[in-house]
C-alpha cells in the first residue's frame, strides 16, 4: 500500500498532467468557437457575453432639478428626502420654471 507522501506526490503529478491536458484542449475549443461564431456571424453580445450596445452602461446622469431655494440657490430634484428649506412648505413656490 502506498504511503501518504507517495499519494500526495502522485496527486501533484496528476494535477500537472490535468492542467497540461486542459490547456492543450482549450486551444482547440477556442478555435472551434471562433469558427462557429464566424460561420454564423455571431458576436459576444449575441451569446450574452458582452453588454448590449443599446443599454447605458455606467453611472446614470444626475436628475434634473425641479425645485430651487431662492435664498441659497440650492436645488432639489424632488426625489428622496426633502431638504430642510422645502420641508413642510408649499412646493409650488420653489418650482423652477
From TrEMBL:
A Pfam family it matches: Histone_HNS
Entry superkingdom: Bacteria
Keyword entries, A-Z: Cytoplasm, DNA-binding
Domain called DNA-binding protein H-NS-like C-terminal: residue spans: 57-96
InterPro entries: H-NS_C_dom
Alphabetized SMART domains for the sequence: HNS (SM00528)
Gene3D superfamilies, sorted: 4.10.430.30
Subcellular location: Cytoplasm, Nucleoid
Family from the record: Belongs to the histone-like protein H-NS family.
The name this protein goes by in its record: H-NS histone family protein
Organism: Ralstonia soli
Amino acid at each position: 500500500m502506498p504511503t501518504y507522501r507517495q499519494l500526495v506526490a502522485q496527486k501533484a503529478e496528476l494535477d500537472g498532467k490535468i492542467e497540461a491536458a486542459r490547456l492543450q484542449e482549450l486551444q482547440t475549443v477556442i478555435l472551434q468557437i471562433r469558427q462557429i461564431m464566424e460561420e454564423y456571424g455571431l458576436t459576444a453580445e449575441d451569446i450574452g457575453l458582452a453588454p448590449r450596445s443599446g443599454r447605458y452602461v455606467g453611472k446614470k446622469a444626475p436628475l434634473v432639478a425641479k425645485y430651487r431655494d431662492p435664498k441659497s440657490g440650492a436645488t432639489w430634484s424632488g426625489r428622496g428626502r426633502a431638504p430642510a428649506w422645502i420641508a413642510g412648505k408649499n412646493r409650488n413656490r420653489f418650482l423652477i420654471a
